[in-house]
Amino acid sequence: MTTSQDELLPATRRALLHRIAVAQAEGRAPSLVAAVVRNGRTVWHGSRTSVDGHGPDENVQYRIGSITKTFTAVLVLRLRDEGLLALGDPLEKHLPGTGAGEATIAQLLSHTSGLAAESPAPWWERTSGSLRPELSDVLGEEPFLHPSGSRFHYSNPGYTLLGALVEKLRKAPWEDVLRGEVLEPLGLSRTSTRPQAPHAGGWAVHPWADVMLAEPVEDLGRMASAGQLWSTTADLARFAAFLIQGDDRVLSADSLREMRTPAAPQEAADVASGYAYCLGLEIRRQDGRILLGHSGSLPGFLASLTVSLDDDLAAVALANCTSGPLLFTVAADLVRIVAEAEPRIPEPWRPMPEVDAAVLELAGQWYWGTHAFALRLRADGLVSLEPLSGKGRGSRFRSNGDGTWTGLEGYYAGELLKAVRRADGTLDHLDLGSFVFTRQPYDEGAAVPGGVDPDGWRGIGSA
Q: What 3-state class would DSSP assign to 329?
């Protein structure tokens, strides 16, 4: 018997509605819309509004601010995957003459370039992009505040440079490249650089009175690739599903995994709060969950997109106010509500379709010195090597097709795992980045670095 996971239970739906209702009321947002994605599809949408009888639906546009950066990062990773650049390349190699060319592309993606957080005055979010027609207008006379690569320092001009890089290598406007390479393949027809009806108006809510002031809507010009986009909960839900699953028409699962890997040195406060920045994505720890995504804001609008990979859940929350509800917390709570009320039902266990006898021979218990590990063959084609104590270094490994495997996580990410055999073909040990794993602790019959004491193991009486 199978059970449909397409619909949420009534109690779960009410809890979600209650959460956004509290956020809209206590945050004094003119309107707030939200969506939840499970198993790659939208399973809930809700809205609250100050206008009686008019609840925005999933197709009403809101400005999404810096969530735009995640879209720009996808475009840059596509260029890398096509071999048009390397993440370690200095910007100068591909976009010369900016005055910020010493920063690498990876540093720009991860906000470790050392560039200033904002462009020179006047504040770019409330003024026309026509005031900054050139990159030099965005960067100013002294663009660097820190040595490149030394620390995480969020930089909007850094993503302006990445947008210019996309334009240079694609020989087309950033907006056109985004539409053709990401928006259209993923079916994001309601995501655009300029508002398309129906769309919400942006408001500032007075901090000490229940009155509102209309915020200006500016075209950000050169800064577009850092924060220009308008979108809907329906489109961002599809984009969240892409960030979980990947789509080879846009970006592979391996490249998305790379995007989700922390790439910026953390400040002490960030370590304490569980925050890290990746390549166009943020990671936060909330309620025991690792959540990735991005937040965004522009005058009149707030936005958050949050994904829990372990739960296969995502949430989007959008509001049309300059300040008010903490939308990351709202989105994280929406994920938590569904995860706790309706835990993810795992896929049925299934055996591997076939197995290589030489690989099967590797399965089982191994020792690095005196530390016990287990190597397991997985039905997804990966192998895992994990400490039996549950503490210590472990990883999954991807086959390279030549009898070796490459680590995917943690200490062993990128490290090579291989089986070393004796002249007669029998298995001697596993080599993992020069670490020798043997079938017994310090196996005297294996090539243990430094050798094994010929007196062997002993008790205290024979020491």
A: helix
Angle between helix 327-341 and helix 10-27 axes, rounded to 10 deg: 160
Residue 5: CB atoms within 10 Å = 14
Q: What is the pLDDT of residues 92-108, one digit of tens each?
A: 999 999 999 999 999 99
Q: In this structure, are strands 364-368 and 371-377 parallel, antiparallel, or unpaired?
A: antiparallel
Bridge partners (DSSP) listed for residue 305: 294, 316
β-pair partners for 175 = none
Give CA–CA dist 54/212, Å, rounded. 18
Q: Where are the beta strands (DSSP E) in 71-229?
A: 203-205, 212-214
CB 47 within 8 A of CB 56: yes
Residue in the block written with tokens 């994605």: 37
Buried b (16+ CB within 10 A) or exposed e, 223-237: bbbbbbbbbbbbbbb
Q: 26 and 35 in contact (C-beta within 8 Å)?
A: no
Integer Cα distance of 237 and 316 in angstroms: 7
**What's at 62, amino acid-wise?**
Y
375 pLDDT above the threshold of 60: yes
Structure tokens at 300: 């009149």
In angstroms, rounded to a whole number, what is the distance separating the alpha carbons of residues 237 and 243?
10
- Closest CA relative to residue 12, chosen from 411, 378, 335, 423: 335
Question: Residue 78: which H helix or E strand, with range?
Answer: helix 67-81
Token pair of 291 as six digits: 């959540």
pLDDT of residue 337: 98
